[in-house]
User: Which sequence fits this backbone?
């Protein structure tokens, strides 16, 4: 939907919004890594503590106890050494991070938001498949009461007449493909997913190249009689743009899962930052060029714009490119649907039981059955809504909370909690330095060097911390997020065009 909102809201303003959102999300993705390492440090305290049944909620007791003992006799107190790292043996899901720093209420709220977000996303996958196939496949040649749909049929929430029958029949085909895949092992789908990922990138390259060629030779919609709207601005359309741009960059809830198996974890912030910048370049290129090429005829679903160029009468190469661009997303969502469905069930179980049972061998068969059954709900919702732009707005609202507000409050609260637990470090070091004044200089210098290095590694800042980990940056991001959140709320609840 991004080319659609770029054109109607103003291409320049869409590009500016995408860049601002991407830069902000790079900061919050880095914060998510920091929070993961702080949670690991607290988990280490719990495992190494001699207090029985210690929980994350009560872990600050250890800090207070050691702070008290260090003030009495700093040379004999047990100093808690935080290990700010992301290990291969312990994975903190996004919901678990919220529980570590905000308790059970944080876990429930986060799991509920992720479930709703995935539900809307799965429904959007259904509409992509249904709308594409009902536009391309001539069901009416062999099935009565069917028709090939037009782009205008999908401007409203749901098409009508024979087109609606074709759309729903396409979703039934989609259900027959994805429901069995939801019961498959995720590892068996990896080669298929990797292949489709490269295929999707290739189709985007073809789409951008075709648009550049069309703009260069003057083959634009209505022969260029409609304005390009490069610097135009429409506030109503701009409000629709904000949640869709945010929805396009949702990544953060998967960062803990992707970070755990990585070999060089010190480079993770560059990996995720690079991924967001790459996505920004791809979305910007595709959206800007599609908006300039199709203009007033721009479709709410980006790939459906090539429905006009695939028609007979166009050069054979253009028709081939059009079919590749149109059909590739509908095939890619076949592989994405099972993954999202499995994640939805995992978060549903976490919400109910408070535990992640997705990797438990005892519940593997039940988990697969639940994934297949739960997948029916978004498919059913897809039968009654076909407008991707509408779904993207609601998904953008939930995604906004997951990738902007939650990492911000997690960054603030995790720093605050680590100060309470490890806050006695500075006091312990100062008292130890004072006690070392009676030592000989040659013995005291190595000790001072040791204390200096100790102070560096025992603060609340892991190696992912940078200048944008400072408190004033947290406040700035919170302010920007609040402004964007107002725009998102206005778009979802007050703008219906």
Assistant:
């Amino acid at each position: 939907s991004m080319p659609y909102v770029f054109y109607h809201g103003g291409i320049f303003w869409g590009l500016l919004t995408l860049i601002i959102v991407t830069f902000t999300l790079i900061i919050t993705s880095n914060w998510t890594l920091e929070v993961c390492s702080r949670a690991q440090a607290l988990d280490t305290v719990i495992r190494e503590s001699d207090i029985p049944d210690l929980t994350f909620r009560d872990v600050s007791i250890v800090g207070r106890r050691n702070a008290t003992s260090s003030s009495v006799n700093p040379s004999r107190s047990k100093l808690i050494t935080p290990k700010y790292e992301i290990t291969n043996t312990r994975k903190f899901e996004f919901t678990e991070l919220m529980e570590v720093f905000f308790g059970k209420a944080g876990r429930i709220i986060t799991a509920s938001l992720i479930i709703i977000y995935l539900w809307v996303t799965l429904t959007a996958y259904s509409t992509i498949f249904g709308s594409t196939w009902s536009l391309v496949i001539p069901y009416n040649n062999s099935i009565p009461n069917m028709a090939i749909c037009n782009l205008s049929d999908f401007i409203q929430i749901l098409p009508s007449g024979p087109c609606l029958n074709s759309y729903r029949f396409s979703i039934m085909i989609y259900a027959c493909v994805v429901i069995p895949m939801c019961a498959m092992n995720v590892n068996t789908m990896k080669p298929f997913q990797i292949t489709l990922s490269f295929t999707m990138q290739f189709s985007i390259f073809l789409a951008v190249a075709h648009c550049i060629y069309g703009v260069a030779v003057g083959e634009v919609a209505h022969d260029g009689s409609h304005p390009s709207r490069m610097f135009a601005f429409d506030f109503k359309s701009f409000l629709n743009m904000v949640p869709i741009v945010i929805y396009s960059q949702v990544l953060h809830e998967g960062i803990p899962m992707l970070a755990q198996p990585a070999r060089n974890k010190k480079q993770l912030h560059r990996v995720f930052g690079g991924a967001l910048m790459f996505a920004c370049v791809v979305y910007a290129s595709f959206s800007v060029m599609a908006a300039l090429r199709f203009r007033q005829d721009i479709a709410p679903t980006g790939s459906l714009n090539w429905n006009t160029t695939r028609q007979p009468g166009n050069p054979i190469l253009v028709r081939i490119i059009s079919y590749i661009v149109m059909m590739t997303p509908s095939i890619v969502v076949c592989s994405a649907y099972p993954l999202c469905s499995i994640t939805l069930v995992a978060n549903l179980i976490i919400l109910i039981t408070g535990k992640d049972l997705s990797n438990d061998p005892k519940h593997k068969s039940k988990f697969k059955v639940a994934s297949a059954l739960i997948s029916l709900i978004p498919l059913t919702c897809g039968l009654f809504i076909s407008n991707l732009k509408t779904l993207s707005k609601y998904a953008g609202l939930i995604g906004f909370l997951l990738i902007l507000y939650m990492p911000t409050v997690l960054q603030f609260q995790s720093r605050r909690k680590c100060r309470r637990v490890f806050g006695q470090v500075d006091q312990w070091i100062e008292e130890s330095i004072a006690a070392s004044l009676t030592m000989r200089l040659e013995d005291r210098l190595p000790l001072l060097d040791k204390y200096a290095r100790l102070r560096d590694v025992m603060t609340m800042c892991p190696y992912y911390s940078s200048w944008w980990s400072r408190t004033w940056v947290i406040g700035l991001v919170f302010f920007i997020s609040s402004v964007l959140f107002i725009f998102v709320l206005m778009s979802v609840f007050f703008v219906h065009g």
